[in-house]
């Protein structure tokens, strides 16, 4: 039984709380929030999809690794790799860098192309393609890598998820469709800062 308290709380999403693993600083534990009227059982959904990817021997270089379930004082938790920069600091969301217009056009293009090729080559579905569902990991002083930590597989466990896992054709179509949406989300993240800059 792993004991979790506020000291280890790292972040919070719509359905889940994310804690630093008390026994391993390089891992996090995702716990479903208590008392929600409606949720999509994201832990179960992600665990199912990650098992599928593992059985298919997919590459995990641009997504966080999943290490399975643990029992905690707050309930069953799903353990994932914690995304940390080379200097030991927690990696920032990709959204943060987009809003800051941190990268040059070429740098941004290279980062996005690497991620796009990764998703297409490994047939991995990034469904909830929010720029805040991706960390931008700092590998060195001037080298970065995009790591998806949330939003993979499907929004809910339905017939669509089964189709994604069984039909390569449907998966390819969905990857292309979601990538177009993701690029639009990237542009929105950058544009929101530009709008704010004109406020006095």
Oligomer: single chain
Shape: globular
Tell me the series of helices and strands, N- to C-terminal. Answer: EEEHEEEHHEEHH
Mean pLDDT: 91
What's the main sheet like?
5 strands, antiparallel
End-to-end C-alpha gap: 52 Å
Kindly provide the radius of gyration, computed on alpha-carbon positions and rounded to a whole number of angstroms.
Answer: 17 Å
Number of domains: 2
What is the percentage of strand-forming residues?
15-25%
Question: In percent, how helical is the residue content?
Answer: 25-40%
Descriptive terms for the model:
globular; disordered C terminus; 38% helix; single chain; 5-stranded antiparallel β-sheet; 8 strands; PhoP_reg_network_YrbL; 3-stranded antiparallel β-sheet; YrbL family protein; Phosphorylase Kinase, domain 1; 200 residues; 2 domains; alpha+beta; 22% strand
Give a description of the structure.
The structure is a single chain. With 200 residues, the chain is an alpha+beta fold. It folds into 2 domains: 6-81, Phosphorylase Kinase, domain 1; 92-196. Helix content is 38%, strand content 22%. The protein has helices at residues 42-55, 94-100, 105-122, 159-166, 168-196, and strands at residues 9-12, 16-20, 27-32, 66-72, 75-81, 92-93, 134-140, 143-148. It has a 5-stranded antiparallel sheet, with helices on one face. Helix 4 crosses helix 5. The protein starts with 8 loop residues before the first strand and ends with a helix. The model is unreliable at 196-200 (pLDDT under 50). This is YrbL family protein. Pfam families: YrbL-PhoP_reg.
